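> call design_seq(struct)
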């Protein structure tokens, strides 16, 4: 170290190394609009600072390099989330008792009053004061708003709003005894992170999958997001938090000309010009990485440049739906305005997992649209129509391509709807939020087909038995990918027992 450097450091002044490092980050930030780092260009700093097992490698990088804990059953996951809380009663858990005792209060039926059950307080965590929050305890029974019947060889009950999906009921595995604790729409984050709004935030299920597994395709993100997050306050549903920003979901737009905002080379810039520009950026990145070896944001940014270059070619091809046949497009409903949006997102999801993306999180509907406090019949009639054919098309497409042995599909929402009629504001046509019991289904790799696990009571109020808190779903999905959720620990970040969940072994083959 020369005399000038010693003097500068002893007087808390910026050294030449600090100056060049900070300058590098400045140029790096300016270059975000045209990211490029050809394979190998920015690896030098990573090799020095983050090779698994090296002294400078962050702990989460070492853990992430381990790969599966046991033989995986699935290579990829398509996680379909319907925002707002679809009614389990009018979809996949029909209850004829609601029609029989319509208009009666819970205490007038031959069944135990579910509000008096100890399960109610065990699984209900209100954000407002309970003495002013009447949600979830409306006592007047509201009849089912749609017909239903047993479907397929398995005889599983599905309502009439799902005619296309009902044709594939023998491929699906239903879990009818899910429960959660947040009775408001922060439950959208909870089903992805496992934590109530009042608790410390945790990484999302997709981020844990990204963190725990290597890539199947280095040219595409491990964790891709289509149609979401639905709002800024639902960013947690794809976030990675303390795992590091490199493990967060990457939202993709279904525009082959611009699938990655700020990720394409500017039209006036040649490929060679961009390469030379990033050679300079690489040198500055190396200086910065040496100066700040523990800077997670910097490390994620370096990796983002590298991945972004490769994605410039791979992502547009992956989401170019024009490559699909007319028959496939129709199967997903791309020829119908009602089903086009959901169909495009689900078809893109199939194309992504087909190319090796580990976890694709799909939001086929906009934020909160399934929230049916009023006009449930009209709302669900319309919304089921928008996703029924596209989801059925996905199942059919995965089957005919042989992907059902490699891909696990999850279809879920944040909570169910109340068996009782919502009365707030003089309402008489809808159901309120219901965290105490609801239904999700899964399909594909490692899962039983034409199977129902668990149940709610006769009125569809409580998940019976122990039920399954949302992290049981997480543990099951990670198990299918070859990961033990209890071994995904970060030193200094002790997770609670509820974060780990329990694998639902009964639904596995």
């Amino acid at each position: 170290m020369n005399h000038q450097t010693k003097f500068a450091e002893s007087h808390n002044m910026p050294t030449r190394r600090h100056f060049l490092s900070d300058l590098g980050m400045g140029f790096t930030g300016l270059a975000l609009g045209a990211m490029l780092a050809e394979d190998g260009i920015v690896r030098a700093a990573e090799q020095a600072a983050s090779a698994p097992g090296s002294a400078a490698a962050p702990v989460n990088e070492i853990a992430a390099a381990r790969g599966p804990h046991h033989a995986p059953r699935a290579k990829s996951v398509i996680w379909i989330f319907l925002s707002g809380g679809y009614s389990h009663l009018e979809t996949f858990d029909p209850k004829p008792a609601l029609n029989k005792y319509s208009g009666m209060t819970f205490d007038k039926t031959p069944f135990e009053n579910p509000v008096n059950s100890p399960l109610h307080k065990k699984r209900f965590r209100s954000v407002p004061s309970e003495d002013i929050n009447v949600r979830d305890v409306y006592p007047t029974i509201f009849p089912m708003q749609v017909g239903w019947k047993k479907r397929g060889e398995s005889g599983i009950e599905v309502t009439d709003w799902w005619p296309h999906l009902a044709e594939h009921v023998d491929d699906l595995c239903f879990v009818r005894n899910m429960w959660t604790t947040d009775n408001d729409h922060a439950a959208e984050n909870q089903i992805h992170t496992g934590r109530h709004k009042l608790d410390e935030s945790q990484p999302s299920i997709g981020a844990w999958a990204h963190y725990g597994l290597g890539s199947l395709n280095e040219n595409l993100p491990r964790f891709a997001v289509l149609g979401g997050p639905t709002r800024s306050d639902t960013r947690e549903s794809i976030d990675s938090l303390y795992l590091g920003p490199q493990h967060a979901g990457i939202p993709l737009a279904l525009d082959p000309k611009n699938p990655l905002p700020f990720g394409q080379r500017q039209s006036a810039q040649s490929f060679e010009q961009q390469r030379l520009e990033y050679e300079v950026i690489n040198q500055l990145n190396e200086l910065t990485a040496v100066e700040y070896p523990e800077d997670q944001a910097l490390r994620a940014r370096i990796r983002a440049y590298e991945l972004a270059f490769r994605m410039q070619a791979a992502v547009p091809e992956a989401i170019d739906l024009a490559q699909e046949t007319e028959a496939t497009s129709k199967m997903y409903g791309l020829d119908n305005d009602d089903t086009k949006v959901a169909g495009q997102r689900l078809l893109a999801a199939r194309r992504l997992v087909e190319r090796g993306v580990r976890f694709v999180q799909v939001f086929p509907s906009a934020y909160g649209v399934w929230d049916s406090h009023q006009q449930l019949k009209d709302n669900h009639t319309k919304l089921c129509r928008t996703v029924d054919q596209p989801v059925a098309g996905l199942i059919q497409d995965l089957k005919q391509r042989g992907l059902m042995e490699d891909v696990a599909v999850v279809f879920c929402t944040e909570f169910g709807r109340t068996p009782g009629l919502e009365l707030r504001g003089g309402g008489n046509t809808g159901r309120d939020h219901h965290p105490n019991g609801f239904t999700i289904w899964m399909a594909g790799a490692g899962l039983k087909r034409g199977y129902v696990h668990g149940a709610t009571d006769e009125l569809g109020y409580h998940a019976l038995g122990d039920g399954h808190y949302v992290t049981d779903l997480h543990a099951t999905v990670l198990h299918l990918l070859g990961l033990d959720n209890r071994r995904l620990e970060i030193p200094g970040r002790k997770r609670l027992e509820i974060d780990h969940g329990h694998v639902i072994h009964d639904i596995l083959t």
